[in-house]
Amino acid sequence: MHPNPIGAEDVAQYLRTHPEFFESHTELLASISVSHPHGGRAISLQERQLEVLRERHRALEMRLADLIRIGQENDAITDKLQRWSRQLLLVAEPAALAQVLIDGLQTGFSVPQVALRLWHLREAYRDLPAGAPVEVEAVTLTNSIQQPYCGPNVDFQVAGWLPGGGETTRSIALLPLRKGLDPNAFGLLVLGSPDPGRFQTGMGTAFLERIAETASAALSRLVT
Predict the structure, then answer these.
(1) Helical H segments across the chain, by residue range
(2) Which of 32, 133, 142, 165 is deepest in the core (most CB within 10 A)?
């Protein structure tokens, strides 16, 4: 027996380092048969190579289609964010900001449930609906959130701020509102949906972060 039998990897390595092999042995391309990947019939090595190239081409087409779709979705969200930001910039009376902000999220982003609470309001704005009393636990929760939370509504106390007391809310997003790098928030924006998949754990939060930053900048005019 040969002391060092040649294995499949040895053959593969030889062909990788000697690509000219089949050029000098062209008859092998037609004579070697392999199994068809989608059937039992035998096909030539040339046909199998062509099938591999087709499968790679289909995979690349699907990947390209996904990238185009994601790009189009991101463009659409960016356009919505720009229009919403413009609406906030055009508000002349600060007391109207909270409602314009909520209406814009509901109509522009199709968020079915929106609630907003602010604390440390300036005296002139303390009677706004967004200035309703907030439990200490809600403030503590908000201060602990460093980036938007997305996931199922696991009986969050703040879900009770949503329309209907959050009874139909299955998924939720919590967006703390802050002035710049201040670790303490001055408010909380709550987005809810009856759809369990609307705000999922692990989903990207880049656009929600932009929404929180824009809302914080706009609403900071109302607080001390």
Answers:
(1) 8-17, 21-24, 26-31, 45-89, 97-108, 136-144, 206-219
(2) 142
For the whole model, what pTM was predicted? 0.72
Where in the sequence of the chain do the CATH 3.30.450.40 domains occur? 91-222
pLDDT one-digit tens code per residue, 19-51: 777 667 766 666 666 666 666 566 666 677 787
What is the spatial distance between Cα 76 and Cα 173, in angstroms, rounded to a whole number? 20
Rounded average pLDDT over 40-69:
79
CA–CA dist 115, 213 (Å, integer):
16
In single-letter form, the type of residue at position 21 comes to F
> Which of 49, 61, 54, 64 shows the shortest CA–CA distance to 19?
49
Class of domain 91-222: alpha beta
